[in-house]
Amino acid sequence: MKQKELVIGNLVAKIPLIQGGMGVGVSLSGLAGAVAREGGIGIISTAQIGYREPDYETDPVAANLRAVGTEIRKAKELAEGGIVGVNIMVATRYYEKYVEAACRAGADLIISGAGLPVELPFLVQDYDVKIAPIVSSVKSASVILKMWERKYNRVPDLVVIEGPKAGGHLGFKPEEVLSFTEEEYKKEILKIMELVQEYAKKHNKDIPVVAAGGISNAQKVREMMELGLSGVQVASRFVTTYECDASQEFKDAYLKAGKDDIGIVKSPVGMPGRAIQNQFLEDVKNGCKPITKCYQCIKGCTTKDIPYCITKALVNSVRGNVEEGLVFCGANVWEQNKMQSVREVIEDLFG
Ligand SMILES: Cc1cc2nc3c(=O)[nH]c(=O)nc-3n(C[C@H](O)[C@H](O)[C@H](O)COP(=O)(O)O)c2cc1C
């Protein structure tokens, strides 16, 4: 099958693939650089990106902001001219500082979800960087398109639609996550594409739309492309690669997971999330995990009102202490049963 390129303004990816940003520490320069080198778009997650920095325990925000720069620069070196972007969650505390750090370091693209990135056009106005909101419904797409048009007279450079089968935090009510059928969600995708097309026409600009969530094999890629999408965003498939930045224990948790091990969890971020059921989630069910320290990760989080610290849980798992951590995953990771290289995953998906 001959693939179309994914064109986002002057950025041209040979393969219509965005590797989804994965925090904490799952998609850093190693993974993003490798995907970009192979012709896709590599995305670094900025969520607690500095967790390996020596001053992280004493000044996590400074460590994170510095690491945004170092990871982007390293990924660009690995990418050999390929496209490298970042995923910055809107819910991030000091969101605007992370956006600035990414722009200064020369990120090609900023993708923002976990909230609607209302101020993003203003924050990037002095930089040559492409911007993309993540939406999960026509309703959220309509809100952000309308707001950007009214406040800034601009449209996104790209729209990412994240469906209910995605990993990490989900932009749905908990009861919606499992009730959407694939056919129903395809209809939602078509409606979002139609709406984006209206704005694209009005502003005389191409706005590519990509879909994410549970796109785990070539058949699913084909189905998505047949809807008329410009590309796909894939995350979980890249966790079980040699290049992925997570520990081998984190990758092994994916390799071992069966269909029944994947569940929906409540997160302190206030959205449902998908993760592998493990001892940590059992312990949370049986009572709160005492929080001894705040890492300044999420806006509005008050340590006294939450069942556990999400930063601690995600850092534990990415470091390899998976039974005391939260292992986010997409709905189809039970299909993954071998380690591969990034190139092999891309060949599996696109032939
Ligand atoms: C381990 C993990 C961490 C993730 N972290 C983030 C994140 O920090 N920000 C974000 O917007 N999406 C995050 N996601 C969502 C992915 O970027 C992606 O859109 C989604 O997982 C796609 O579905 P798939 O994993 O089935 O391919 C995460 C997903 C996983 C599996």
Description:
With 351 residues, this protein is α/β, with parallel strands linked by helices. It has 2 domains: 6-246 and 336-350, Alpha-Beta Barrel (TIM Barrel), CATH 3.20.20; 248-333, no CATH class. 36% of the residues lie in helices and 15% in strands. The chain is built from 12 helices and 13 strands. It has helices spanning 29-37, 60-79, 95-104, 120-123, 138-152, 174-177, 182-202, 218-226, 248-256, 279-285, 310-319, 342-350; strands spanning 6-8, 11-13, 17-19, 41-45, 83-87, 109-112, 130-135, 159-162, 168-169, 209-212, 231-234, 262-266, 272-276. Strands 3-11-10-8-7-6-5-4 form an 8-stranded parallel beta sheet. A 3-stranded antiparallel beta sheet has the order 9-13-12, with no helix packed on it. α8 (218-226) links the parallel β10 (209-212) and β11 (231-234). α1 packs parallel to α2, α2 runs parallel beside α3 and α5 (138-152) runs parallel beside α7 (182-202). The longest helix has 21 residues, at 182-202. The radius of gyration is 19 Å and the shape is globular. The mean pLDDT is 95.
